[in-house]
Amino acid sequence: MSGVTKAVRRTVLSVVRRSPVPTTQLPEAVSILAAMPVAVVVLSEENRFTYANPAAEQFLGLSFPQLAQLSLDDVLPEDSPLFLMVGQLRTGATSIADHDLSFDGPRLSKKGISVQGTTLSEDPGSVLLILQDGNTVRSLDRQIAARNAARSITGMAAILAHEIKNPLSGIRGAAQLLESSVAETDQELTVLIREEADRIRALVDRMEVFGEKPVAMEAVNIHRVLEHVRRVARSGFGDGLRFSESYDPSLPSVWGNRDQLVQVLLNLVKNAADALIAGGALESEITLITRYQHGLRLANPTSDSDNRVELPLLVVVRDNGPGIPEDIRPHLFEPFVSSKPSGQGLGLALVAKIIADHGGLIEVESRPGRTEFRLHLPMLAEEDAQ
Ligand SMILES: Nc1ncnc2c1ncn2[C@@H]1O[C@H](COP(=O)(O)OP(=O)(O)OP(=O)(O)O)[C@@H](O)[C@H]1O
Ligand SMILES: [Mg+2]
């Protein structure tokens, strides 16, 4: 749970329970919640509204005195996925985030809603929800726009041509090393050359029907993918940069396409390397992280809205470079957006497309000294394993 959610939870609890809180603290707690630009509501065990901040009143289109007379059933249709989420919170989940929900009730009709829910352990049965509409969750919108842009046929062809370059530079770098290195290392480099050559072949094979042909999904060990990408980077564009890893060794396999995941991570690591080299930071470092993280779910793009996929596998590529230029940010995942003299601006469009095809989600956080691309990916589902 984020620090903000924790702080909100504590404050809400003070407001809802009133009595145990020293009265001197109460106005402060109320005004903090009132000032928050996100909608915060608390539901009782019977799903009645016991608290709503002003942003929530605006979001729901009802004042708190009105809401206090109502329960969630009065606002949303009974098949709303929000009921499922609230139920899961009451039966053990401590925190869940759900994106891209539609609220379609008699009093409320909104699309693209993100909800973060958490239990109030000190107040059993009560559930706290933070609601954000599509405008607030702009990064998600951007992703969807990027998805569409990358799907255009021309964009697709350009992306493919672009993608042939990365493995080729890996091959060239490795071959160069081979020439000047001693015999012992030859074998590892030969393996690298073979793997990269295979990848180009697989890409070119797909060229005719790129975008049409469904890619083969399998259980992929993401740590092997990361190590492969690191080796390619080391022997090419990332030569001389420091890499560090923080892996969760018990992480289950990703349900995905190995070659495509290599492409995604190669692009993210290449961007990090570019930023570090251009930024000239003294202690340049690329950090690769994997984690298991409960709670983030997304509507399955290939099925109806009630079928939601959990994305518990987190893969992070972090660098300590200068950060993403301000003017690039609103269009980050669109094709042909680049701040580099020789950049094509296709890397992140490709990343967005592949992650979308995997049913995953990307988050970006960037400030000078720390840029982080976080991939949330699905794991092997039981029905896929059979
Ligand atoms: N880790 C990062 N740090 C700072 N800026 C970044 C980072 N990753 C991406 N960017 C910014 O986003 C832009 C778009 O990245 P993208 O990978 O799509 O294209 P590119 O790297 O410029 O070109 P290409 O990948 O086609 O060679 C980059 O030009 C850069 O300005
Ligand atoms: Mg790039």
Automatic annotation (TrEMBL):
Catalytic activity: ATP + protein L-histidine = ADP + protein N-phospho-L-histidine
Any one GO molecular function term: phosphorelay sensor kinase activity
UniProt keyword terms in alphabetical order: ATP-binding, Kinase, Nucleotide-binding, Phosphoprotein, Transferase, Two-component regulatory system
EC number(s) per entry: 2.7.13.3
Highest taxon above the source species: Bacteria
Limits of the PAS domain: 25-79
Residue span, Histidine kinase domain: 159-381
One Pfam match: PAS_8
SMART domains assigned: HATPase_c, HisKA, PAS
InterPro entries in the cross-refs: HATPase_C_sf, HATPase_dom, His_kinase_dom, HisK_dim/P_dom, HisK_dim/P_sf, PAS, PAS-like_dom_sf, Sig_transdc_His_kin-like_C
Keyword Phosphoprotein in annotation: yes
Record protein name field: histidine kinase
Naturally occurring in which organism (per UniProt): Acidisoma cellulosilyticum
Lineage: Bacteria, Pseudomonadati, Pseudomonadota, Alphaproteobacteria, Acetobacterales
